[in-house]
Predict the 3D structure of the following.
Amino acid sequence: MLELEKKVLFLQKRLVYLMDIKGELFGDRLVPLQNWLDTLKSQLYTLSAAELKDSLDKIAAQIYLYEKEAEEKLTPLDYVRIVRHPFRMTLKDILENVYDDYVELGGEDECNIDPAVIAARATISRKVGNRIYTYQVMVLGHEKGHGEEFRNGGSAKPWGNAKALQFMQVAETEGIPIHSYIFTPGAFPIEDYPGAAQQIARNLYAMAGLKVPIISFISEGGSGGAEAIGLSDLRLMFSHGYYSVISPEGAAAIEGKLKEGEKAPLDLVRRCAEQLKITAKDNLELGTIDRIIQEPPLGAKSEDYAFFQQLKKEVIKATDEVVLSVKSLSALRAYHLKKNGLQDTSNIYIRWELNEKEKQKLVQKRRQKYRAMARNFYADLRSPWQKKVEEVKNYFLRVKTYFYFDLLKRPRRRLERIGEDIKAEAHVILSYFFSPFIQLKERFFPPKQKYYFKLEYETEVYETEVEDTQSNNGYVSPLAKVDKTITCPNAERCGCYDIWIPDLYTDLCGICPNCGHHFPLEYQWYLNCLFDKNSVREFNAEIASINPLGYEGFDAKLNQAKQKTGRHSAIITFDAKVMGISLVVVMLYTDFRGGTVGAAEGEKFVLACERARLLRRPLLAYVHGTAGIRIQEGTIGVIQMPKCTVAVREYLEAGGLYIVVYDNNSYAGPVASFLGCAPYQFAIRSSRIGFAGPRVIRETTGTEVPPDYHSAENALKRGHIQGIWDRREFRKNLYMALRTMGGKNLYYR
Amino acid sequence: MKPTLGFEEIEKVIAEFKRNPFQNYPVFTPHTGVVSLKVKKGDKVKGTSGKWLEKKGTLLYTLTRQGNVKPFYAPIEGEITDLKKELEGQFVEANTYLLTIRHRLSKEETINKILEKFLDIYRAPETAKYYLAPELSKKIEQKGLQQILIQPGDEFLVMSRMKRDVTLVYDGQPGIIYALYFKPNTTIAQGEPLLGICPPEQAEFISNLVKKIQLEWD
């Protein structure tokens, strides 16, 4: 009887779940079943076991039919409901049912630096013939805790992501694979150290070079929060999960231009969910994931044990695949796995440890994988002939670089260094050899005057200080053409006088002479005033943004932006000089769709990194402003975060110097990836830097933030940036930074 | 030293506050310009609000000078009781009177005004944590707060900042500590009230006055 009682409860749970997910599809059709179950529950001890079983079987069959019907009619918004449902499987369920054993690291329920993030050392075993092999793995992921309040819905705080990074590094030290499970609606948007954006950027940067296999599994992939542990060798997604740049509700609030506190209409939310292409199938088509793991109808729940068995096989197979792709001796096993899939892995054994060479290969493959992502989602407006010319030019540049730097300069420098060392060694030997003679000489002929030993420091020999003759190149900001005064926003607090606009935007460089407040200036001002005269040479201007998802109404908006700016994307990449020093610059500017980053912007950024690497030049990212990832490009946009971070890491590892300067407003994805991972980040005074704006913080965390929460001064106090620059000093500071950080050889170690 | 009043004065003081439970805020132009009034006489206006006073109050008027239209907002909640309508569209000098906001005092504001009138408020000289001097603390524990008389030269507070303790010596008029406005082990900003001190004979008067206001004020 106890079993039948359990079955009643189980069926009730299934019915509740069905109503929650797809209630509107069935209307009142589910009510009779519910009443029937209620009646059975009340007559549990009056009905005979056979009668009860018979009724329950009938109800179960009916529920199954309804579930099947619902499954066939699932819409993208239903997938969102599924992953957010408290009955949905969680990471702890996976740890319990997929892995043999696990030890949670750094926490236990509420006693945790961040209960939304779990790190666990786990073991997973496979049977080959009669022998059982056990593997050690590091499992990381978000824990939603079936709705436990302290889990924050799996929304990781900055220190939660820092914990994940800490254990990723432990896994790297131990040489064990990482399995990361993404169950997050997004990162918790707070700026407290280590900072939501900056920590995600650090995680991405670290994962771009982590020398162990990383396999990620996406259930709820909420934008940047998902990427914090999502950069991996193999990206799998649960069939009933979603992976998106923004929650459908957030997209609806933007699309519908809703006021704060207003609820988005359900139809709009549904439409946004459809257009964002958030389902596993959509993402597979877009190439942002590698494979889908099929779940039972209406998604896996905590008690779907058969699914967990299947998942175990998938987990092992995925790790095998990654390992085999870099193993030196693996062809037969890889072939077997490819041919038989999960059906038969009983006769292959794969050791998951890698040697140094294989680790290098693994990282290289990971980088290539991300480099190839989202390549079909931008337009190249160059004619085939122009492309060919560019290719040839690049080829010659490569050859020239190879000859100049690799064949000539590098051996010469090596020889010089060896020569220096030999000289220094000889000096010591000679001192020993001559010192008795010198002492003897000093005894008989004591020195008449005292000797002063001049300390000689190893100094870098620079060219003589370059005199800066730049005088705005005759550029006058169009803002200066207004004949009136303007009030400084700090006038009440600092007592600033009104400023005459023509003065403000010419001689004063847009800066209040009293309090130093920086008024925003157009990006053209920087193009003209920051770099040496006629030194700006734009490249890849023909790479253009498109509407890859066919987002409704976006084509018109894109055309409007193109007409307004006369450009094709929100990023400008160019070669330039600052007081004679050549550098490669990427400039994100607000005039084009708020400086948002999509496939075209990502590609241009990556190409700029490659060019800087090729030319051995420093790379400057000047952020005139960015509102984040372009939501209309969905996960194509999100994928730019790891893609660009990987490019930055490759550039830095090759010895480059990467400097980021923020201006105006810089938020979200780009700050949480390729900008935030820079070793040197500066901000122009009066700029704002952050992960999410005040409204998003209020709506997601329910807390108010002070008006200056994102100010550059606060970012500096929190340690997110390394300094604040005055706009008038920008050129000089940049030159100094290039000289002091670049050193003698300026850019490359 | 604050004025000393007898018990018979309580009703008088309350009546005075009840007769006029308002405070007037006259608004003057900060600089020259052409005035454009945005409120009418009798309008209710909202004051600056928000935890960080980040939300502006009702727009009162704009002042246009050299093409720059500058908005000015109500600093406090109230009603426009006086308005120089004739200045609409006129060029005015700096410090020209424009309007008055009549603000109705709340119970707390009235009590604070009364306390300010009858008490000597000792304010925090620095941003720090404050504690009562050990001897004074012991006496208050034994006898009660309003029973302790402090004299000039008495050590009465310990100011603690980054483990640097400085004993503060009282230098005001002799009196009893009527009220403590701080909690130990909490950082108090510079200029915040720490103690309210009054002559011993006035303590009961103030206490009755406050109680009466708390009961009767609506």
About this structure: The first strand of chain B starts at residue 22 and ends at 28. The helical segments of chain B are 9-19, 107-118, 134-143, 203-216.
